[in-house]
């Protein structure tokens, strides 16, 4: 068993934004052409802690770098108040020959990188060659830092961001981090300022229920709806919606799930990102509607990225090998 600790994963990802985006793009293409297996994620919830959850995401990705495994990721929004990270995670990669676990990775960084890379890929794809010069960032946690990092990688012309958080101290701390990536960072006094300032918006909050109608956004703005539960149902229904997978995203009371419950169908979904990448679906026309990308977060993306990180770590001699992690002799199974 190869164990990759937090610093091993960080070292493998450092400075590799474009490589990571390529891994994510190839995985989206594989998913769109039937070369993945992505069961529905399982949510473990707690009766007396409705906002907290731990999620299992199993997946298989086929192709020349085939891989399988499962990510086990917790989301405890209350941690933020205590000054600790909201999310923590581990990921196990399994052998495709005998099913035995081969690697155990610290995975919160994988999740953040996968999310940032997927958002940047969607922005680059949906911008269709138009320059992305600025972005409004609503929510100032780790995820929007990564979204910004990867946006700058695909759009070096992006030099200005406007940030908003309900907590002014968090907004100020985030702005200091953002200035390491872009020269101009503004802190908005109200969410509408951040929504109105740019043609590109990223929503990465801990909201449990829709709270934004996006009326302040510019016509035709591109909205990266990373946290999935921010946008009012009426706004979703009137927008051009792009998803990673309709079956996955229309669950767990996301804004799109609520829209489906209200309408009885999914006709408000225009395309899957993989279908746009392969050309199976044309890019949306510029008709003034908001274009909203809502990614549920496919486990296949985490597995593919973990495979990439493990390969880099092994090439660099990183991580800790534990040869006796698994029993050497067969044991009787009870399940």
From TrEMBL:
GO terms for molecular function: oxidoreductase activity, acting on the CH-NH2 group of donors, NAD or NADP as acceptor. InterPro entries: NAD(P)-bd_dom_sf, ODC_Mu_crystall, ODC_N, SbnB. It holds the Pfam family OCD_Mu_crystall. GO terms for biological process: siderophore biosynthetic process. It comes from the Bacteria. Gene3D superfamilies: NAD(P)-binding Rossmann-like Domain (3.40.50.720), ornithine cyclodeaminase, domain 1 (3.30.1780.10). One of its GO terms (cellular component) is cytoplasm. PANTHER family: KETIMINE REDUCTASE MU-CRYSTALLIN. This is Ornithine cyclodeaminase/mu-crystallin. It comes from Nakamurella multipartita (strain ATCC 700099 / DSM 44233 / CIP 104796 / JCM 9543 / NBRC 105858 / Y-104) (Microsphaera multipartita).
């Amino acid at each position: 068993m190869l164990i990759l600790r937090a610093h091993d994963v960080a070292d493998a990802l450092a400075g590799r934004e474009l490589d990571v985006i390529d891994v994510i793009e190839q995985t989206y293409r594989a998913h769109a052409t039937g070369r993945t297996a992505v069961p529905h994620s399982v949510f473990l919830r707690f009766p007396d802690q409705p906002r907290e959850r731990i999620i299992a995401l199993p997946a298989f990705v086929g192709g020349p770098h085939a891989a399988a495994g499962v990510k086990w990721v917790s989301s405890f929004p209350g941690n933020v108040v205590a000054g600790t990270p909201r999310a923590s995670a581990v990921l196990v990669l399994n052998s495709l020959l005998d099913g035995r676990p081969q690697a155990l990775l610290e995975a919160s960084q994988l999740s953040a990188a996968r999310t940032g890379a997927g958002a940047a890929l969607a922005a680059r794809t949906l911008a269709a060659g138009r320059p992305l010069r600025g972005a409004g960032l609503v929510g100032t946690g780790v995820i929007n830092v990564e979204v910004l990092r990867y946006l700058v990688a695909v759009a070096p012309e992006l030099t200005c961001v406007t940030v908003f958080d309900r907590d002014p101290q968090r907004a100020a701390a985030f702005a200091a981090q953002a200035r390491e990536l872009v020269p101009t960072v503004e802190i908005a006094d109200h969410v509408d300022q951040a929504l109105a300032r740019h043609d590109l918006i990223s929503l990465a909050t801990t909201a449990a229920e829709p709270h934004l109608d996006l009326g302040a956004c510019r016509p035709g703005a591109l909205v990266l709806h990373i946290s999935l539960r921010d946008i009012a149902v009426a706004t979703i229904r009137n927008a051009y919606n792009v998803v990673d997978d309709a079956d996955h995203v229309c669950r767990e009371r996301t804004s799109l799930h609520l829209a489906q419950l209200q309408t009885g169908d999914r006709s408000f979904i225009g395309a899957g990102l993989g279908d746009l990448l392969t050309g199976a679906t044309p890019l949306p026309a510029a008709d003034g509607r908001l274009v909203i990308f809502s990614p549920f977060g496919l486990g296949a993306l985490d597995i593919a990225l973990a495979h990439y990180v493990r390969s880099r770590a092994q090439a660099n001699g990183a991580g800790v090998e534990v040869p006796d992690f698994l029993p050497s002799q067969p044991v009787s199974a009870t399940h």
